[in-house]
Amino acid sequence: MGKERSEKERGGGEQNKRNLFVSSVVMNSCAAELKLLLTALLVVCSIATLFQILPSRFTISASDLRFCISRISTSNTSIASLNSTPTSTPTMPPSPSPPSIRKDQVADNGVIKRVFNPYGSAAYNFITMGAYRGGPNTFAIIGLASKPLHVYSKPTYQCEWVPQSSSASNSTFSTVAYKMLPDWGYGHVYTVVVVNCTFSEAVNSENSGGKLFLEASTSGGGDKDFNITDRFEVLNESPGDINTTLFSSKPKYDYLYCGSSLYGGLSPQRVREWIAYHVRLFGERSHFVIHDAGGVHEEVLEVLKPWMELGYVTLQDIKEQERFDGYYHNQFMVVNDCLHRYKFMTKWMFFFDVDEYIHVPQKNTIKSVLDSLSDYTQFTIEQMPMNNKLCLSADYGRYYRKWGFEKLVYKDVKRGIRRDRKYAIQPRNVFATGVHMSQNVAGKTTHKTEGMIRYFHYHGTIAQRREPCRNLLNVTEINFENNPYVLDTTMRDLAWSVKKFENQMIGPKLKNTRQ
Amino acid sequence: MGKERSEKERGGGEQNKRNLFVSSVVMNSCAAELKLLLTALLVVCSIATLFQILPSRFTISASDLRFCISRISTSNTSIASLNSTPTSTPTMPPSPSPPSIRKDQVADNGVIKRVFNPYGSAAYNFITMGAYRGGPNTFAIIGLASKPLHVYSKPTYQCEWVPQSSSASNSTFSTVAYKMLPDWGYGHVYTVVVVNCTFSEAVNSENSGGKLFLEASTSGGGDKDFNITDRFEVLNESPGDINTTLFSSKPKYDYLYCGSSLYGGLSPQRVREWIAYHVRLFGERSHFVIHDAGGVHEEVLEVLKPWMELGYVTLQDIKEQERFDGYYHNQFMVVNDCLHRYKFMTKWMFFFDVDEYIHVPQKNTIKSVLDSLSDYTQFTIEQMPMNNKLCLSADYGRYYRKWGFEKLVYKDVKRGIRRDRKYAIQPRNVFATGVHMSQNVAGKTTHKTEGMIRYFHYHGTIAQRREPCRNLLNVTEINFENNPYVLDTTMRDLAWSVKKFENQMIGPKLKNTRQ
Prior knowledge:
The structure is a homodimer of 515-residue chains. Chain A is built from eleven helices and 27 strands. With 515 residues, chain A is α+β, with helices and mostly antiparallel strands. In chain A, strands 12, 13, 14, 15, 16, 17, 20, 23 and 24 form a nine-stranded mixed sheet that branches. In chain A, strands 4-5-9-8 form a four-stranded antiparallel sheet. Residues 1-35 and 40-98 of chain A have low confidence and may be disordered. The interface between A and B is large, with 137 and 136 residues. Strand 14 (313-317) of chain A pairs parallel with strand 2 of chain B. Chains A, B: It is found in: Membrane. Chains A, B: This is Glycosyltransferase family 92 protein.
């Protein structure tokens, strides 16, 4: 019934050529293939029924079926004729005859055996962001998984390597994977999972290519009757792809910045200042990976472009992750993807935000400090919180031309407050990472970095498009809004040389950047 | 690859006739239908692709596809040959060629456009337990839905009535449904939903039959790109099925008990005592609906059987709900199903547990009390907490033959403690219900029932198979484990007449029941 009705309605509503085209294609293809189609789908279900008597170890992949669904894309092309028929929502694509609903049954002893009929799907089992080789026999897969699955059940993961050629020395082999949940307690519909697959022997050692598959099992999480396993390709190595010297050779960069998800109406001027400052700080052997979750709008892209062209910045467009409701634009997934993607590209990897400025006190350089910390896999960095509206009377009349870290010079010195720390790691020894530190590291972590390295934090300045200076002061100490502040011109004193550095590197092209 | 391998392995492992039969059927049907099948599934996906250019209002039902999956049942028939091939888990049923994984792309400006590939399903969208007519134009559908869907998104429900005959006066019509979440904050993977569908006019008023469909939309909960709507039949009325006088006539029963989910190793003797006591209390125009979530084992069934045969007890086997991880054996779903299923069968409906005994103080009867409360849609009932191990010295040597409410005579009289209340309702004015009271009622609720009706609570006695008496006392007051108790023989004094009543009703057949 539903089928014929909706075809008729579609035919009756032809109002433009595109609609006509769609309708006739659909009708022709439906008319021609319908019989074939229903027959074949009946066969599928019959075969499925046959497999009822196969053993329970036998698992079924829902992902292939779902793929048909996921190809129904987000296209918003509107066809008016369909919208005019609200009482009969067509269910497409043409499906097999509707499922015969299981009914309650009354047993001989009068007991009513109730049945529960499940429909549809409310969450994916797994969503991949990236999969990376971590050595001759190990891989990391970064993605999202259904959160209640991990809270109330114990989903398991297994990896399988399938060689491209089928020569005898290259057999398929599997390993049970180790899962890490770096945002534990934070996810929404989805939570972040880092799957570590370490095989007992080298994989693709002949460099003849192959594929890594992840098998993600629900362990009965959504339905205790089924341990549904979805198996899907996560990595494809072509012959000659891998370069094992990578894992032991000196990395391309000394310092790589992994940014968290950027979103909202970011200030182009603040981003301009931040990148110029940090390229100068970290120097030639540094790189910055920026993740655009919607925050890199046209004007922000303008200030990044010159540095992208010089090779200092890589911009990752991660807007698609917004489809999946995790914590804070899935920032925990993003930093873990960055960790594994660039693991062998850098000696040190930094995790902090674009309203934060790393600073090494004088007499030291970033190199001398990090060399002294090279025994540690991880160190954390103390925060210098800066007020985001107190400026200097000396800047009166021209503060709007000053840079943010130049004019915001009052440091919060309230004691006894636990302040967030940021951190850096030597990524080759890290398996998963967080936002404020990593809990999955091999090797030592130190927090004793006071006096060696710290960061100035200009909270609330990056997502604001108007002038931050609100109060102009000419004092060295002040109690403002019940908080003690002192004048600290450390960053202000660097502004001139950062501006000069920017001009040397990319010229004056950003001079008209707006707040 | 996967396909041919697994067939070969299956063929090679033929060890018994059943196995052989399965293998050959699978192989023949696969060989014959494979080409047809793959072709047809390609057509499905092609049609799906075509619908990319249809408007976004256009929704897709995943439930039909999932049906193929859910028919892969829990059968544990074991076929050894398959278990011996751990490295190649077959993914069945034969699926269309594997999805071409979408790959990251590098844009002209150097930006890396990351893609996120989702797989599988971790939870159903909706699971039905029951759907009931609530009047000429209204229905209630009771089920479970994915909890994060309701916490982080706003799934919507719509109902559609499709008449059986297609005469002009009987057209299909729809209504937006009102959803109630009676266990809000308690669910796990799933949360309980009561969907109220009230149409603007009478439905099936000619009594010519039809079907009620529920359309459950995810509103982008698991994937913001898709508002997936699952549409499924929830109620089927055959011609002549409905009796509209039911809604206004005097109900069959005065008192109906809706029990919560029973599970665990319940004491048959305690259940025997409970049912005899309450049949006597509520009398001939009463009925008891017991929900077996696994607690009604063989011995418990024995003590219920005589009362089932007399028509006092209906046993609902709800063990299947254990498949779906909600709160406490999905008790909130169960009581709501009971409410709507028996809504027109009874004047009053009671919700309490099988370790609780309703009591009406002397000079009143259950009828006189409830008549005096008939202006209220709902009233709650005060608890008398009874100690579950203090007994009387007088029972020394024969306490094991006494009934539970006969020998447990010490009442907890600690003041200032908020104790759970239980409740009763006039169900025709109630739309959804909880465990301790209902929050979706029309009409008044009263809690001022002290002295009129109360319940004795023998906590911790029902799921214990050994003798409860642990301490024998001959005092009228005692402080035990830092709690004050007083002797209260109200229930003890009724034991003799309850035993006599049981014997009159069903004879001595339960006299050998064990604790």
